[in-house]
Design brief:
Strand content of chain A: under 5%
Low-confidence stretches of chain A: 1-8
CATH architecture of the largest domain in chain C: 3-Layer(aba) Sandwich
Oligomer: heterotrimer
CATH topology of the largest domain in chain C: Rossmann fold
Radius of gyration of chain A: 23 Å
Chains: A mainly alpha (301), B mainly alpha (241), C alpha/beta (326)
Number of helices of chain C: 12
Largest sheet of chain C: 6 strands, mixed
Number of domains of chain A: 1
Distance between the termini of chain A: 40 Å
Order of helices and strands of chain C: HEEEHEEHEHHHEHEHEEHEHEEHEH
Radius of gyration of chain C: 24 Å
Largest interface: A-C, 44 and 55 residues
Helix content of chain C: 25-40%
Mean pLDDT of chain A: 89
Number of strands of chain A: 0
CATH superfamily of the largest domain in chain C: P-loop containing nucleotide triphosphate hydrolases
Structural class of chain C: alpha/beta
C-alpha cells in the first residue's frame, strides 16, 4: 500500500506512507515498571554512554573487593585462625565502606533526578499519561534499588563464602537476612535524601557536593559526639545523636531489631531508644518522599 | 596593569554566593561551631576532645569542603556555561584573572574556614586560646593550598567538583586513614603539622616536620596558581558532558 | 488494564465534533492574566494559533495537557474534560514543547523509544514506532548519535518525533520553527502540513510569525492578551479581506472614473497610491466587473493585481500587540 520512496537526499522526508498504531497500549502500572527498570539500569550506566559506566561499576567492584578478600581469608585460614563467624559482621560492612556508598549515591542521584530537571526533559514526562507522583516515586524507587544492590552484593558474597567455609546455615541465614533488611533501609534513607537534595540543586556539580557534604559531615559530627559522649559517660547523648546520620541510624535499628553487633560507640539501648530509631528512619524516608512530591508539584512543564 | 582586578573580584564574589552554593558555605562553619558548643557543654574544657573535634571535623572536613565550594564557585560556573570566553577575550593577563579569583576563594576560606575554627577553638578551650589560634592558622594554610589545587582542577576538567570530592574522600579520607605514607602528600596533614607547631601542645600527626609542611604548602599554593594561569592561556572549551 | 482501541475513539470523535473546545477558559496569575474568558472550538486538520509572545498560546496548551490547572472555565480535548480525564487526554495527544527539553547524552533513537514506552507502548512496538517516526521526520544516521551534537533543525525534528511516536490523534506543536534557518523552516512547515493531511492527525501549531501559518493552516485562531481576537478558516481570511489593485489609463482622471463606476455598482473602491484604485475583492466575479467597467468607460486596463490581505491585517484592525509578518 505504500508508495515507492523518492530518491530524496538525507534530511528530506521519505515518502513512505504513515502507518497508524493499532496495537495494545499499556496502563500506568506497566509504564511505571518500564521507567523503574530504565532508572535502575541508568544508575549503573547501562543504556547510557560508556563513560557513565565507569564510576558506578568501579564503585561496585571496590565494594566487592574487601568482601572477596574477607571471604578468601575465612575459607582458607578458618581453622588456622580459629574463626567461627564472619570476620566483619554483615551489619558492620556497610558502615566500613560508607564512603564508597556515599560517593555512589552522590553521583547517581543527580544523574537520575537532576538531569531531567536541568534539561527540562521533565516536560516530556509530564505530558504523558502517567501521573506526576508516579514519576517521582518511581525515580526514587530506582535509586533505592540501585543503592540496595550496591550495599547488598558484598553481603551476599560474604554469605556464600561463609557457607563455603562451613559456617552454620541457620545462623548465617538469619544474620544475613537481618543485614539485608538493614541494607534496604539504608538504601532507602540514602537514596531518598540524596534525591531530594538533587531535585533542589539541579546543577550536577553542586548536587554531588551537597550530598557528599550532607552525608560526610553528618557522619563525622555524629561519630565525634558519640566518641566523646562514650568517653565521658554521657552515652545517652551519643545514642540520640546516632539518628542524625543514616549509617549510624540504620546500624542502630539493626542492633535493636536483629540484635546485630554494634558498629558505633553508642548504640541504642532499651526500647525507648529503639523505637526512636525506628521512627527516625520512617521520618527520614517518608519526609523526603513527601518533600519531593511537593517540590515536583511546582514544575509547570 | 595591576596584579589583581577589582571587577573580577566583585564578579567572583557574586558567583560564589549565587544559588544554593552560598547556603552550604554558611552551613559548614555553623555546624562546626555548633558541634563545638555541644562538646563544650558535654565535657567542659578538654584538650583531647578539642583535638578530635577541630581536627576530625574542622581541619579534615570543613576546611577542604569550604575551599572546594569557594574555588569551584568562583571558576566552575563560568567554565560550565562557557561565559569564561568573554573574560578571556579581555586584555587582562591570565595570571591576573587567576589571582583575582583566588583572592575571592581565599577570602571565603578565611571567613568560613579559619575564623570559625578560631571561634570553635575558643569555645572549646577558652583557657588555652593558643590552641584555637593554632588551628585557625593551620586551616588558613591548608585552605590556601586546597584553593590552588582545586583551581587547577577547575580549569583542567569540567568534572572538577566531583574529582575534587573523590580526592578528598578517597585520598585524604579513606587511604589517609589506612596508610601512613599518605601524609607526605596530604594537604590536611601538612596543615595539621603546622597547627602542632604553632600550638605546641597538640599532637595530630606523627613524624611530619614543620619545615617540610610549610614548604610543601607554599609550593602547592604558588605552583598551583601559576599552573592555573598557564592552563587558562591555552584554554579550549570542549563540548558537553 | 490498558486503553483499548475502542476507548481511543472517545465521546467527541464523531465527524465534525470539535477536537478542542474551551468555554470561558481563564488563567490568572498574581500579576498577570494569561487567558481571559477564552471560548473557542478547534476542529480537525491543521489549526494555527497565532499571537504575540505573552498572548497566551503556551498557557492554553499547558492547560489542555493538564500541566497547569485553569483558574476558571472549561476545556475539552477530543471530547474528554481536561480537569477530570487528564491521563486519557495525554495518552491521545502529542506535545512538542517550545523550550529545549532534550538531554544531551542520549541518542534520538533511544530517547524516542523510551518516551514511546512512557506513552504506553510495549518495548518492541516502541522500537518499531520510533524507527518509523524518526524516518518520517527525516532523521537518518544522526538518530544514533547523542543529541548534544545535533543542529537546531535536528533537535526540532527529534522533539517532533517524540510527539508522534505513540500515534496520537492530536499533536500540539509550540513554535516548531523556532531558531531554524529559512530552508529548514520550510521543511518543518511542510512536515507539519503532512502530519495534518497525510497522517490523519489533527494539528494545533503555534507561532508568532504569521506568514508561515497562512501557508499551512486550514483554520486560524488569533489570540491577543489572553483573549480571542479571531477564529476562522484561513480561506475566509484571505478572500473576504483581499483586495484588487487596479491601474487604468487612457483618460485624465481615469482612476476616479473607474472608482465612481465601481461605487455605483455597489463595490467598495478606494484610491490607492500612484493613481491606482483599490477594489474590495468579494468573489471571483469582481475581476469580471472591473474588466467590464473599464471597457465600458473606454479605459485601458494596465494592471489588475490581487493583494490578499494577510493575517497581520487582523491585528491592525483589532489594534493588537506587535506580531511579526514574515
Amino acid at each position: 500500500m505504500s508508495t515507492p520512496s523518492e530518491g530524496a537526499p538525507t534530511g528530506v522526508i521519505h515518502d513512505i506512507g504513515y502507518r497508524p498504531y493499532a496495537g495494545p497500549r499499556l496502563g500506568e502500572g506497566a509504564v511505571a515498571w518500564a521507567l523503574f527498570v530504565t532508572g535502575l539500569r541508568n544508575s549503573f550506566g547501562l543504556g547510557r554512554s560508556g563513560r557513565s559506566k565507569v564510576l558506578p561499576m568501579g564503585l561496585l567492584a571496590l565494594m566487592l573487593l574487601p568482601a572477596l578478600i574477607l571471604v578468601g581469608v575465612l575459607v582458607q585460614a578458618k581453622d588456622l585462625l580459629g574463626l567461627d563467624q564472619q570476620i566483619v559482621a554483615y551489619s558492620t560492612y556497610p558502615m566500613t565502606t560508607q564512603l564508597l556508598i556515599s560517593v555512589f549515591v552522590a553521583s547517581q542521584a543527580p544523574a537520575l533526578i537532576s538531569r531531567d530537571l536541568r534539561f527540562r526533559t521533565i516536560t516530556l514526562y509530564l505530558a504523558r499519561p502517567a501521573r506526576r507522583a508516579t514519576y517521582v516515586l518511581v525515580r526514587m524507587a530506582s535509586l533505592t534499588a540501585a543503592t540496595f544492590l550496591l550495599v547488598a552484593a558484598p553481603l551476599v558474597l560474604m554469605y556464600v563464602g561463609g557457607l563455603l567455609a562451613d559456617l552454620p546455615l541457620g545462623r548465617e541465614s538469619q544474620r544475613v537476612g537481618g543485614a539485608l533488611v538493614g541494607a534496604l533501609l539504608l538504601a532507602a534513607c540514602l537514596a531518598c535524601t540524596a534525591a531530594l537534595v538533587a531535585a533542589l540543586t539541579i546543577r550536577r556539580g553542586l548536587a554531588v557536593t551537597a550530598v557528599i557534604v550532607l552525608l560526610l559531615v553528618t557522619y563525622t559530627v555524629v561519630a565525634t559526639i558519640q566518641g566523646i559522649s562514650a568517653d565521658t559517660g554521657h552515652a545517652r547523648v551519643g545514642e540520640v545523636a546516632g539518628i542524625f546520620s543514616p549509617y549510624t541510624l540504620v546500624n542502630g535499628v539493626q542492633v535493636y531489631v536483629f540484635d546485630a553487633p554494634h558498629a558505633t560507640r553508642t548504640p541504642p539501648t532499651g526500647d525507648g531508644m529503639g523505637v526512636l530509631y525506628l521512627l527516625a528512619t520512617a521520618v527520614t524516608v517518608l519526609g523526603s518522599v513527601g518533600a519531593m512530591l511537593l517540590r515536583y508539584r511546582k514544575v509547570q512543564g | 596593569m595591576s596584579a589583581v582586578s577589582p571587577t573580577i573580584v566583585r564578579i567572583g564574589a557574586h558567583s560564589v554566593f549565587g544559588r544554593r552554593r552560598g547556603i552550604l558555605l554558611f552551613l559548614l562553619p555553623l555546624v562546626l561551631v555548633g558541634l563545638a558548643v555541644l562538646v563544650r557543654a558535654l565535657v567542659g574544657e578538654d584538650l583531647r576532645s578539642t583535638e578530635d573535634t577541630l581536627y576530625g571535623l574542622g581541619l579534615a572536613v570543613v576546611v577542604p569542603l569550604v575551599a572546594l565550594l569557594a574555588t569551584t564557585g568562583v571558576l566552575a560556573p563560568e567554565i560550565d556555561d562557557g561565559s569564561i570566553s568573554y573574560l578571556l577575550a579581555k586584555p587582562i593577563s591570565r595570571h591576573t584573572i587567576v589571582a583575582s579569583k583566588l583572592l575571592v576563594a581565599w577570602a571565603c576560606v578565611l571567613v568560613f574556614g579559619a575564623l570559625p575554627m578560631l571561634v570553635a577553638g575558643l569555645v572549646l578551650l577558652l583557657g588555652q586560646p593558643e590552641v584555637g589560634f593554632a588551628f585557625a592558622v593551620g586551616s588558613l594554610a591548608g585552605g590556601l593550598a586546597y584553593c590552588s589545587l582545586f583551581a587547577l582542577l577547575s580549569v583542567m576538567t569540567r568534572h572538577a567538583v566531583v574529582i575534587g570530592l573523590l580526592y578528598l574522600l578517597l585520598w585524604e579520607g579513606l587511604l589517609g586513614g589506612l596508610l601512613d605514607g599518605v601524609r607526605w602528600l596530604s594537604v590536611t596533614r601538612w596543615a595539621a603539622a603546622i597547627t602542632e607547631q604553632v600550638a605546641g601542645q597538640v599532637t595530630l600527626v606523627d613524624d611530619l616536620g614543620f619545615t617540610y609542611a610549610v614548604v610543601a604548602t607554599v609550593v602547592v599554593v604558588v605552583l598551583g596558581g601559576w599552573l592555573t594561569g598557564r592552563r587558562l592561556q591555552a584554554f579550549n572549551l570542549t563540548g558537553d558532558e | 488494564m490498558g486503553v483499548s482501541v475502542e476507548d481511543r475513539a472517545g465521546p467527541g470523535s464523531g465527524h465534525g465534533a470539535p477536537v478542542i473546545r474551551t468555554g470561558a477558559l481563564t488563567k490568572t496569575y498574581p500579576r498577570v492574566t494569561a487567558l481571559d474568558g477564552l471560548t473557542v472550538d478547534i476542529g480537525g486538520g491543521v489549526t494555527g494559533l497565532v499571537g504575540a509572545n505573552g498572548a497566551g498560546k503556551s498557557t492554553l496548551i499547558k492547560i489542555l495537557l493538564g500541566l497547569i490547572p485553569a483558574t476558571s472555565g472549561t476545556a475539552q480535548v477530543l471530547g474528554y474534560d481536561v480537569a477530570r480525564d487528564g491521563g486519557r487526554i495525554r495518552s491521545l495527544v502529542g506535545y512538542m514543547p517550545e523550550h529545549d527539553c532534550l538531554p544531551a547524552d542520549v541518542s534520538a533513537s533511544d530517547l524516542t523509544v523510551h518516551l514511546g514506552q512512557m506513552s504506553g507502548l510495549p518495548y518492541p512496538a516502541a522500537r518499531e514506532r520510533a524507527a518509523d517516526v524518526l524516518r518520517h521526520v527525516g532523521l537518518a544516521e544522526e538518530r544514533y548519535r547523542p543529541i548534544g551534537g545535533y543542529s537546531t533543525g535536528m533537535k526540532q525534528r527529534a522533539k517532533l518525533a517524540q510527539a508522534l511516536v505513540h500515534d496520537p490523534r492530536l499533536v500540539l506543536l509550540d513554535e516548531p520553527t523556532n531558531g531554524l534557518d529559512p530552508s529548514s523552516r520550510d521543511d518543518m512547515l511542510a512536515l507539519v502540513r503532512r502530519i495534518g493531511t497525510d497522517f490523519g492527525i489533527a494539528v494545533l501549531v503555534t507561532s508568532h510569525l504569521l506568514g508561515e501559518l497562512e501557508r499551512i493552516s486550514d483554520h486560524v485562531v488569533v489570540l491577543d492578551s489572553g483573549r480571542l481576537l479571531r477564529a476562522s478558516a484561513t480561506t475566509e481570511f484571505l478572500h473576504r479581506t483581499g483586495t484588487l489593485l487596479v491601474e487604468v489609463q487612457g483618460k485624465p482622471d481615469a482612476d476616479r472614473l473607474l472608482g465612481q463606476a465601481l461605487l455605483d455598482a455597489g463595490v467598495r473602491a478606494t484610491p490607492a497610491d500612484g493613481r491606482m484604485v483599490e477594489v474590495e475583492l468579494r468573489d471571483d466575479a469582481t475581476h469580471d466587473l472591473v474588466r467590464d467597467l473599464a471597457v465600458d468607460l473606454g479605459l485601458g486596463l494596465v494592471r489588475m493585481q490581487e493583494r490578499h490581505h494577510r493575517i497581520e491585517d487582523v491585528f491592525r484592525e483589532g489594534g493588537a500587540g506587535s506580531v511579526h509578518p514574515v
